[in-house]
């Protein structure tokens, strides 16, 4: 346990990728894998992999490699995926609905318990196997169901108004598709931002650099 | 111009955020802004902002601040947003369609010229104001229209088969929603990956840390 608490931020950021690869190997029936094999599949160096995975120790054995299932489970555990955090989706427009049908929440530590939208015409439509609720019922729902996480697919202004309300209701984690900067205003929250347009602008920069044969600038 | 080429990767990564804020200010009719004002709005320090924006010099003036419109345009120019890169969307499932209706491509440097899907039942359906084309027509379309960028919303295996074909047809930039690691196999490409599930797993880690009152681990 003490080892786990010392894992660096950069290793944590790479863990989801290890989790994905190990999941695939496990599914394919692979029982063990050497750091060299794993490095080839993941496009990392074997020494990087050994360094990363040694952080939580005891899995790699000289001449044996890693036990795939054990490592997969341990990484899932470190990521907290066994928790099934109760989650609400707010905003059932195009993006919200696409996430609801595209993402396998339950396999990534989340249990979607409610979907909300402010549009009356949306009320009762089925999203993620449940009827969309109106925002007027949000506070009561949270008091009764205690969601910990909100997926915000609303306009930016709505997010700004919603977060303080949700915080008071115990929602501490946010998967934020808006541009409202939650952490700046509420540092005591857990937030992952998905800023798709920012991503797209970086790609524009990279392609422009590539056209100028500037590979260094193309790989940001 | 020489100044521009020396901009560091970390500054480039922050530019889309500056662009968004300056866009908002410009739209609201703000003509100039001090680094201090901008820092409050963006949740950065004034000295960070001065350091970042001095990279491409000549915009901030002591006692005057930044000319919003000029800075906004210059950052857009550095990001290559004036280029309108010809773009194709491959995979018109939930995520592809959501992106097509959610993202303002044209304001972020991209011009979507074609939408493709392998499902015959999708053919002819309207997405982003144009009929979905079948994959069988992809190569001819690229030869005639010369798209530079592909948005990949396909299964991972399809992406692995598609990228070499697209590369030969001149598609050098990829907005990659699959888990296929394009850069590892094709280093001479410009790629932005959007790995939504990885993001979600990081959030799970953060929320678990937050519940243990471990703020350091909650802010990765």
What can you tell me about this protein's structure?
2 copies of one chain form a homodimer. Chain A folds into 2 domains: 2-78, Orthogonal Bundle (Arc Repressor Mutant, subunit A), CATH 1.10.10.10; 84-198, Rossmann fold. The longest helix of chain A is centred in the N-terminal third of the chain and has 19 residues, at 9-27. Chain A has helices at residues 2-5, 9-27, 35-42, 46-54, 68-78, 94-102, 138-145, 156-168, 182-185, 196-211, 215-218; strands at residues 32-33, 60-61, 65-67, 85-90, 110-117, 126-127, 130-131, 133-134, 149-152, 173-176, 190-193. Chain A is an alpha/beta fold. Chain A is built from 11 helices and 11 strands. The mean pLDDT of chain A is 89. At the A-B interface, helix 2, helix 6, strand 10, strand 11 and helix 10 of A face helix 2, helix 6, strand 10, strand 11 and helix 10 of B.
Short description:
The structure is a homodimer of 220-residue chains. With 220 residues, chain A is α/β, with parallel strands linked by helices.
């Amino acid at each position: 346990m003490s080892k786990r608490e010392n894992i660096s931020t950069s290793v944590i950021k790479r863990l989801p990728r290890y989790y994905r690869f190990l999941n695939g190997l496990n599914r394919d029936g692979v029982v063990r894998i050497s750091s060299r094999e794993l490095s080839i599949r993941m496009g990392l160096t074997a020494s990087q992999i050994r360094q990363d995975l040694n952080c939580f120790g005891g899995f790699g054995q000289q001449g044996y490699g890693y036990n795939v299932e054990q490592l997969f489970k341990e990484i899932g555990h470190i990521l907290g995926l066994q928790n099934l955090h109760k989650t609400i989706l707010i905003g059932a427009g195009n993006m919200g609905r696409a996430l609801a049908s595209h993402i396998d929440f339950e396999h990534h530590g989340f249990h979607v318990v409610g979907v909300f939208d402010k549009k009356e015409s949306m009320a009762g439509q089925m999203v993620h196997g449940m009827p969309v609720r109106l925002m007027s019922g949000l506070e009561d729902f949270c008091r009764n169901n205690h969601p910990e996480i909100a997926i915000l697919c609303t306009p930016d202004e709505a997010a700004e108004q919603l977060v303080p309300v949700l915080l008071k209701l115990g929602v501490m984690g946010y998967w934020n598709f808006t541009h409202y900067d939650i952490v700046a205003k509420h540092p005591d929250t857990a937030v992952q931002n998905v800023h798709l347009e920012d991503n797209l602008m970086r790609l524009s920069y990279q392609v422009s650099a590539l056209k100028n044969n500037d590979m260094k600038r193309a790989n940001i």
